[in-house]
Amino acid sequence: MTFVQIIDCKTSRYDDMNRLMDDWLAATEGKRTATHSIVGKDRAQGDHYVEIVEFPSYEDAMRNSKLPETDRIFAEMVALCDGMPTFTDLDVVRDEQLNKAAARRFFDEVARDGNLGLIEELFAADHRDHDMGKAEPDMTGRDVIRSDVEGWREAFDFAFTLHSQIADGDEVATRWTWRGTHQGDFMGHQPTGQEVLMTGTTVFRFRDGKIAESWWFYDLMRLMRQLEAGPV
Q: What InterPro entries has UniProt attached to this entry (predicted)?
């Protein structure tokens, strides 16, 4: 995310406004360049609403505003407002906290809890994965992450402890400890019920609010030694 637009208006006809926004979403399907939007209602003034719309860039926002469907909907929106809505264009200069939160959601909700449906929200469709523990370390697509999570969850009942996160530009590095119980086949090792542990660091590179690239560094040899030793 590099650009957001804030639309501020007052209206006593929000239900009509809401239906209008749904009409715009349907009319611009496959054309619009907005990536996400939220609408908030002012607690102090019940007729005051603010919409925050995210775009990959200012140029994408301008292309969105030039769509004929956007022109039509805007004219109808003005008619529903008590006065002319105001628009504020903002270049995003800091969103590291959002990226760090998204990284944590992967470890907690996707990897640990198995919410695979969240992968589409968190990862770009052309996500590139670099995993030093694989025979083919560089792969592309969301299905790579989905397959990896499914495989690890079938082999282990596990959780991550996240020790620290560092955000620098569009990248977030997370240092973690992984603890699991071996309950399924893993790289030729049949389940032992053994408790195992390893440490590692993951770097996510974000683009437009989604994870576009990831690098995995972890002590796989330590894990394999524990599995080869068998239950104590």
A: Cyclase_SnoaL-like, NTF2-like_dom_sf
Please tell me the predicted confidence (pLDDT) of residue 98. Answer: 82
Sort 26 into a burial class: Cβ within 10 Å, 0-12 / 13-18 / 19+.
exposed
Give CA separation, 210 vs 56, 176, 216, 217, in Å: 11, 21, 17, 20
- In the chain, the N- to C-terminal Cα span, in Å, equals 49
Q: Which of 38, 4, 166 is nearest to 96 (CA)?
A: 166
Q: How many CA atoms lie within 13 A of 27 on its CB side?
A: 15
Helix (H) / strand (E) containing 88: strand 86-91
Q: Report the percentage of the chain scoring pLDDT > 70.
A: 97
- Contact yes or no for 101/211 (Cβ under 8 A): no
Q: Give the pLDDT confidence of 76-105 residue by residue, as tens digits.
A: 989 999 999 999 998 876 667 888 999 999
Distances (CA, A) of 83 to 43, 79, 180, 204: 20, 9, 59, 44
Contact predicate 129/142, CB 8 Å: no
Distance of CA 172 to the CA centre of its chain: 13
Q: What is the identity of the amino acid at 117?
A: G
Residues 6 or more apart whose CB falls under 8 angstroms from that of 130 comprise 137, 138, 213, 214, 215, 216
Instruction: Report the predicted TM-score, pTM, of the whole model to 2 decimal places.
Output: 0.64
pLDDT tens digit sequence for 53-70 = 988 888 988 998 888 888
pLDDT for position 205 = 95
Place of tokens 């030093």: 132
